[in-house]
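Quality-control log, excerpt.
Job 1 of 2 completed; input and output follow.
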Amino acid sequence: MLLQNGKMVNEAHKLILLPNRSYQATVRSEIKKLAHAVGFSAKKMAEFEIIIAEITSNLVKHTAAGGELLVKLLQGETQGIEIIAIDGGPGMDSVHKWMEDGASSTNTLGQGLGAIKRLSDEFDIYSQQGWGTILLCRLFKQKPVIKKNIFRTGTLMIPKPGETVCGDNYFYSVKGNSLRLALSDGLGHGKEANIAANRTLQVFKDNLVAAPEQQIRQIHEESRKTRGAVMFVMHLDITNRQLTYCGVGNIAAKLISVNKAKSLVSYNGIVGHSIPNRTSNHMIPWNSNDVLIIHSDGVVSRWELQKYPSILKNDPVIIAAVIYKDFCRKNDDVTVIVTRQYK
């Protein structure tokens, strides 16, 4: 999440389909072209090519339907590339078992997952038998400087098929024990939706100290010349163990706690066009084990994480990808944000 010259420049994930083995070479070439923009060293690029070869081989090896990849350039202080591989194959009964070198279900050398993990700077995987597998790996141009951050936020942002830019966007800021975050979905798709989302987020960024309800009203007044957007704005203060939020329109948000899940309700309306005369800040308690999931309406909101045993142990991006895999509408921009607290 970045600002350059006053503009939001979040990198969207590029969706690359791999329906069968005949697409393997084309997909590998497309991903390698993206990676060249990072400026990897020759050694790092060679390792990256091994990772891509193993990932694409696994996607077509274990399911006739192949799978899909979500690829994003990582910008800012941690330049690199993020790859998410998703399939609806047979899945694994034990991830740890199949991570071991020599373990194979297809009579091969069984070095694929182990090699991907060893060569990746960051790696995670989630799998269920009969459901499929999601794999996440990140490679960095240089080893990033680890900064102490009490929050961990993962995002997926994917344009509507056929569009070159995403009509959704987000911005978040961490300061000490406080997280301020907004997700905006510009009306429609494409360039004009993107402009609307960017404008609302710029106003949010310029008014970070205000409460969410005040921010929504300020954003509404300063984005009237755009086509409008739906938004969700939240402030999380873990010192006071409180989540404060205000939403307008069909951005879905759900707080996942140890024994329950609570949907966070938004007001009807369109920021920049028409919002209720009376809105207010909503405040709910926050516990250190809580997970907040926010998404645009490119995802059906009828999901339950109980269907995915132990998923909350995974990287927030894996959690977002699980929701995307099973509940994406496939005909709209999609953004899923998962945020949690480090203990």
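Job 2 of 2 completed; input and output follow.
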Amino acid sequence: MSGRGVHTGGTSNRERGTTVTKMVGLFAGPGGLCWGGELVGVKSVGIEWDANACATRRAAGLETVQGDVRQYGPKDFPECTTLAAGPPCQTFTTTGTGTGREQLSMVLAYMDLMALGIDVRNDLKQLKDERTGLVLEPLRWALEAHGLGTPYRTIVLEQVPAVLPVWEAMADVLTGLGYSVATGVLRTERYGVPQTRKRAVLVASLDLTAQLPVATHLPYAKNGINDCVTMDEVLDRPEPFTVISNYGTGGDASKRGQRTSDEPAFTVTGKVSRNRVVALDGTELPRFTHAEAGALQSFPHSYPWSGKDIPQQIGNAVPPLFAAAVLRAALGL
């Protein structure tokens, strides 16, 4: 885990007493970041374009705006003092198109222009995949809020590890605006999520010295000493089982990974329903239900998954327990 912090001005939450904060979540998906906020007492409104994810959010009672984050800005949500975002990862992840990683230098160059006050929205349309440029939307919101004289007090961003250079460059811009910033790559199983998943995180604050959350569990190690939350602990299955997955093997079916139910799950993706589940004697068992896949992402079993493409919704979501840990640290709760 890597991180950094810089001097910050202002007063702390403790010095000011109880502070009411509301969060606006960009690319809010089915509610991972927002549900994590609920767990630590932070109310939120989420912007999400996908109708299916919005159906799930509304069923869960989460305030939702269905639309493109590029068509909104801080002035549309003046009551929100915290900005959170998990931009689409498909062009940066190793299992996706890879165009974001290929054009990383261009993304960083556009960020430099944004810091100078130059509007690069038309330029971003020239990228091979328009989703790549969405990683800069949180900075646009932060810069606009600063320009309005109502800067966000706290900013929390998460993405796949390949985006860490973007967060580090964004940290330099935010530092210039007076924020204390911390960045790093965190492992979700270290925060009670029954799944191994690495995420690049940025935490920025105008009121506190920014810090990443302190881990509560050891990192998962195959055949090592582990205290991770296991699949057994969150799934109500009557017998031990083995999950057979090709995640992390480059899609090579001859190298399918296996984990037993006394271990955390592999990273839950939109292809989670393809994972085979077998008994110890090799008997095929029912594959993961939507509720079970959601539980492996640390959602409640009762979470009201709605609409279509539910496995993809689950795979795209931020694990709420992980989101709660990051928000707790970011807000000094």
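Post-run check on job 2. The mean pLDDT is 87.
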